[in-house]
Amino acid sequence: MIQKVGYLGPKATFTHLAVKKFFQDNQVEQIPFSTIPSCMDAVANGDIDAAVVPTENALEGSVNLTIDYLVHDQPLYIVGEVIAPIKQHLMVHPSKALCWEKIDRIYSHSHAIAQCHKFLHHSFPHVVHEYATSTGAAAKYISEHPEENIGVIANELAAKEYKLKIVKENIHDYDYNHTRFAILYPEKEADLPPLDGFTPREKTTLMITLPSDQSGALHQVLSAFTWRKLNLSKIESRPMKTGLGNYFFIIDIEMSMDEILIPGAIAELEALGCGVKLLGTYCAYDLK
Ligand SMILES: O=C(O)C(=O)C[C@]1(C(=O)O)C=C[C@@H](O)C=C1
């Protein structure tokens, strides 16, 4: 039973919004952490029951910190996924509301800044970018430092929470700006309530390593899924961090774990000399 849920804080980050959307009216305690790894460590240590972490943004791609920490350091399971819309706004301290065009720094999470690059390039070409641990952390900082001439990129809830003035709405460069968030848990299955009003998609995520120096290995991996008609919605490589050219692959299968097809594909991959690890089999909700 999930009672305590950790997220990248402070209050009013996008990850906090994802927690609120996913757990709706369920009475879960929502606990902020200053980094994604510290939040994942807290699940592994038993201080909290689950963590909600960003895994991929439609404009910026994977959140490498989350994927790498999950694979290399903290082996938790993905037990749920939400895809949430991301609307970035430019905000300032209310005392700067009339002179916001004169800001000399832009402060936010690196992903949020990256999602607004074209806007920043055209509207503030000479303004320095500074990275915060989260959009919420940037908003909190500026609320406590009214003397600084900073613009922050964050969401509407952060403007409310930290009493900031939104001076330019929807500054993300492309309309379709959504982020995927995973719910991480120490066991394969968590008793998660279904999300009212949404139809989930079933998914399974695997981590695969290839045998070394075997030509056509990736092709063979893909064939193990293809001839079983297992639909893949994502394949991504990340460095193993053991040497240039060594990668692991994250593969999303559009189906929950069954008793025949996915275990058959895994057995075939293992017979080829691949390493295969189940990262999770879960329901994914697109919140639109
Ligand atoms: O800084 C936040 O508000 C976060 O929740 C982190 C994060 C990310 O890591 O991508 C989450 C969603 C948005 O894409 C921007 C930032």
From TrEMBL:
Entry keywords, A to Z: Amino-acid biosynthesis, Aromatic amino acid biosynthesis, Lyase, Phenylalanine biosynthesis
Q: Which InterPro entries match?
A: ACT-like_dom_sf (IPR045865), ACT_dom (IPR002912), Chor_mutase/pphenate_deHydtase (IPR008242), Preph_deHydtase (IPR001086), Preph_deHydtase_CS (IPR018528)
Domain (Prephenate dehydratase) ranges = 4-186
Catalysis: reaction(s): prephenate + H(+) = 3-phenylpyruvate + CO2 + H2O
User: Which residue numbers delimit the ACT domain?
Assistant: 206-283
EC class name: lyase
Has the keyword Lyase been applied to this entry?
yes
Site residues, Essential for prephenate dehydratase activity: 179
The protein's matches in SUPFAM superfamilies, at most eight in alphabetical order, are given as:
ACT-like (SSF55021), Periplasmic binding protein-like II (SSF53850)
Q: Extract the Gene3D superfamilies matched here.
A: 3.30.70.260, Periplasmic binding protein-like II
Pathway assigned in UniProt: Amino-acid biosynthesis; L-phenylalanine biosynthesis; phenylpyruvate from prephenate: step 1/1
EC number annotated for this UniProt entry: 4.2.1.51
Q: Which GO terms describe its molecular function?
A: prephenate dehydratase activity
Matching Pfam families: PDT (PF00800)
Which biological process terms from the Gene Ontology are attached to this UniProt entry?
L-phenylalanine biosynthetic process
The superkingdom of the source organism is: Bacteria
Any one GO cellular component localisation term in the record: cytoplasm
- The protein's name in its UniProt record: Prephenate dehydratase
Annotated source species: Metabacillus arenae
